[in-house]
Amino acid sequence: MSAGFEAGDRVRARPGDPDHHTRVPRYVRGHAGEIVALLGEWPLPDASAGGVIRPEPCYAVRFGARDLFGAGDHTVTVDLWESYLERA
Amino acid sequence: MSAHDHDHGHEDLPVAARVRRLEERLIEAGQATDAELDAYLSTLYSTASPVNGARMVARAWTDPDYRDLLLEDGNAAAAELGFGPLSYRLNVVENTPGTHNVIVCTLCSCYPVSLLGPSPGWYKSFAYRSRTVREPGAVLAEFGVSLDDDVTISVWDSTSEARYMVLPARPEGADGLDADALAARVSLRGLIGTALA
């Protein structure tokens, strides 16, 4: 699978609360951030939890604290698999 | 932050029973033997230590080429000092005059065990995991770390197969020290980002 995003791209973590295992922290769901780096290709945890090994690109994505929490000057960088993201 | 009192035994915790059941299932399925599991754990815990991460930091403080490698390819930098191959991708993030980095795992307790040793109790606490992403300045202040107003805090939430380690800034007054003496200046908290070094 080729990587669909590159450093600098604006992306949004998919909103919603899936009824299966996932590694999207709740606090970034629906929020926009910026791709910092492509980290590698690893099995998507959501699929692995169901016994399916499906490697996918995974990115470090940086969010502003003000965007996430309404306050704060810091940034939070979260590693997110490609299917957790949509273009913002 | 008040440290979780961690001097009680773990053998009687529900999680210990769950781990034991998992081990039994693996053994029953022929995936591993008791001896293999014991050997893996004893190797890990006899070699996993924050001394490893501290040695990498001290080398980066004294060798600019190594510093560049550490930031570019953490796994190669670890291997150069004899650590590895690592079971994870290592990302090293550098403190600069304008940025202070701090590591957390909000979903569980991901952490580069082989380079930092077993994680501190507070690293796994709900308080540290939930508050560090939301109010890292207040958390750092409780650890006794005060940063200038113009320093931006960069929080790294370890949610994937990557593990993070901080490269602290070299302390003032450490000129002339050799790598061993410098490594002794690096604390486990410095490698996580809850201390300056």
Major sheet size, sense and barrel closure of chain B:
2 strands, parallel
Count structural domains of chain B: 2
Could you give the distance between the termini of chain A?
Answer: 21 Å
How many extended strands of chain A? 5
**Architecture of chain A in CATH?**
Roll
Q: How many helical elements of chain A?
A: 2
Query: Over the alpha carbons, how many angstroms does the gyration radius of chain A reach?
Result: 13 Å
Write out the strand line-up for the largest beta sheet of chain A, numbering strands in chain order.
Answer: 4-3-2-1-5
Question: What's the CATH H-level homologous superfamily of the largest domain in chain B?
Answer: Nitrile hydratase alpha /Thiocyanate hydrolase gamma
> What would the average pLDDT of chain A be, to the nearest integer?
96
The coarse overall form of chain B would be globular
Q: In percent, how much strand structure appears in the residues of chain B?
A: 5-15%
Largest sheet of chain A: 5 strands, antiparallel
Q: Give the overall silhouette of chain A.
A: globular
Number of domains of chain A: 1
Oligomerization state of this entry? heterodimer
